[in-house]
Amino acid sequence: MLRTTITPDNTNINLLIPHDYVGKQLEVLLYAVEELKENKNVQETKKHKPSDYAGCISKETAEALLQHVEQSRNEWERDIL
What we know:
Blueprint: H1 33-45, H2 59-77
């Protein structure tokens, strides 16, 4: 595997492929290092704790969900003949 960073001075880049790589499928990635840093910072700020979601649904919705869960549990516990 070859990995390097460059700073191009125009819009063209020429690649010299090692002889061992000829005839093999290659993956070429092109991205700006700054973009990676920006994406990493965005991902880090999106981490949430469970407490961040407190109060995000109404009491009525919460009660309906709890009733549904209770009903589902009761269905699993009943004898099916």
